[in-house]
Amino acid sequence: MNDAETIQQADKALRELEQDINTYQPLAWGIPWDIEAVEKMERIIAFYEKRKGQWLRMLSGASEIARNTLIEFMRLADLEIEGAESVLFMIQRGKKKEAGNL
Amino acid sequence: MSNRDTMDFNKYLEYEGLDKIITSFELDDILQQSGEHGLCVNSKLPLLDKYIEGFESGELVAVSGPRKGGKTLLAQSLTLYFLEQKIKSLWFSYEMTPKQFLKSFPEIPFFLTPLKLKTNALPWMKERIIEALVKHSIGVVFIDHLHFLFDLARSKNTSLEIGQVVRFLKGIAIEYNLIIFLLCHMKKISFDKDPDDSDVRDSSLISSESDTGLILWRIKNTDNQAWLKVAYSRRTGAFDKKIKIAKVNGLLREVRDE
C-alpha cells in the first residue's frame, strides 16, 4: 500500500473511531449495573482490540507519517479499552457490594 | 430435542463472536473496508519477478542451496533492492558475527537487527518482530538460518520440529502482513544433478509449508556466477525455472545470455 492509501485508510478509520467514541461514551458513563452493561463493555473492548490488530497489520511497510498516525490510533484505542475495563471493574465491584462480599 | 440441545441451537444461531462464521462476500467487504491491501515488492531480478510476480505480504519464502551457494548474498541483495522500494527489513543473522555481517555488504544499508540474538527462542523472535514493526514499520524479515531456531541436540524428531517452526513463522507472516525469508541448509547432493526442494536438509515440511522455494548453487568453473531456481511458487504456479545470476559489485544481479 502506498503512503496516500495508508493515510486515507487511517483517516477513514479515525472518523469511524470518533463515531464509535460518540456512540459508546454515553454508555460508558450512564450504564445500569446489569448484564447488558457488561456485554456492552465487552463489545467495546473486543471492537478496539480488533481495530488495534488491523492497525498493527497496516504498519507493515508504512511510511513514517502513516506509522505515527497508526501508533496514535492504537494509543487512543488503548485508552478506550482501559476506560471500558475500569467500567467493567466497577460493575463487578457493585455486584460484590450488592452480594455483601465487599 | 432436549432443553440443552435447544439452548445450544440458540447459542449458535445468535453467535456474534470475532470468529463467527461469515460468507465469502462478507469477508470480501470486510477486507476492502479494512484497508489491508498488503505489500508487494519486487526482487529487481527481472526474470525472478516475471516468474513469481514479486513477493507479497503473508508469504513465507524458503531459500535453500548447498554451502557457499549464495543464500546470504541473495538475501543481502534483496535487502537493498527492497530498500530502494522503501521497504525496510529486519535481520536475524545467526551465521556471522555482527562485524562480519556488516562488512559483507558492499555498503552498509539501512536495516534492523536485534542488538543481541537468542537461539531456539521463537516467542522471543515474535516479540522482536512486533517491536520492529511498531518502531520502524518493517515489511520483510530475513532469518539466517532455520537450524538456529530449535535445539538440534534436544530434538527427538527434527523433521517434525522443523515443521512446527516453519508453521509458526508462516503464522507470523500472515498475522502481521509481513514477508519472511527463511534460509535453510541443504543436504549433500551429487555433483551431476541440479538440486531441488527434496534436497532441503531434514524436512519436506519446509517446502509444503512455504509459499515460494528458491534454490541457489554456484556454477562450476566460474568465479562469480550461480543458478537461482524457482523450485515452486504456490501463487503463480511457477515451477522449476532457472535464472542465471552473478555477483557484481558485491550484489547479485541477473545475467542475460546474449
Characterization of this structure:
The complex is a heterodimer of chains A (102) and B (258). Chain A has 102 residues and is an all-alpha fold. Chain A has one domain: Methane Monooxygenase Hydroxylase, Chain G, domain 1. In chain A, 85% of the residues lie in helices and 0% in strands. In chain A, α1 runs antiparallel to α2, α1 packs parallel to α3 and α2 packs antiparallel against α3. The longest helix of chain A has 35 residues. Chain B has one domain: P-loop containing nucleotide triphosphate hydrolases (Rossmann fold). Chain B has an eight-stranded mixed sheet. In chain B, strands 1-2 form a two-stranded antiparallel sheet. In chain B, β5, α7 and β6 form a beta-alpha-beta unit. In chain B, 36% of the residues are buried.
In short:
With 102 residues, chain A is mostly helical.
Task: List the topology elements.
The complex is a heterodimer of chains A (102) and B (258).
Chain A (H helix, E strand, L loop, with lengths): L2 H28 L4 H24 L5 H35 L4
Helix pairs in contact in A: 1-2, 1-3, 2-3
Chain B lengths: L2 H11 L10 H11 L5 E2 L4 H7 L2 E2 L3 E6 L5 H14 L4 E5 L4 H6 L18 H15 L3 E5 L13 H18 L3 E7 L19 H5 L2 E7 L6 E9 L5 E10 L2 E4 L4
Parallel strand pairs in B: 3-6, 3-7, 4-5, 5-6
Antiparallel strand pairs in B: 1-2, 7-8, 8-9, 9-10
Any idea of the CATH topology of chain A? Answer: Methane Monooxygenase Hydroxylase, Chain G, domain 1
Number of strands of chain A: 0
As for the number of domains of chain A, it is: 1
Summing up helix and strand content along with how strands pair, one would put the structural category of chain A as mainly alpha
Low-confidence sequence ranges of chain B: none
**Number of H/I helices of chain A:** 3
Question: Which structural category fits the helices and strands of chain B?
Answer: alpha/beta
Tell me the distance between the termini of chain B: 77 Å
| Count of alpha/pi helices of chain B | 8
Order of helices and strands of chain B: HHEHEEHEHHEHEHEEEE
Rg over CA atoms of chain A: 17 Å
Quaternary structure type: heterodimer
Report the strand count of chain B: 10
Q: CATH class of chain A, anyone?
A: Mainly Alpha
Helical content of chain B, roughly?
25-40%
Provide the spatial order of strands within the biggest beta sheet of chain B. 4-5-6-3-7-8-9-10
Major sheet of chain B, described briefly?
Answer: 8 strands, mixed
Quick check: average pLDDT of chain A? 75
Looking at CATH, which topology of chain B would you report?
Answer: Rossmann fold
- Regions of chain A with pLDDT < 50 over 5+ consecutive residues? none
Estimate percent helicity of chain A.
over 70%
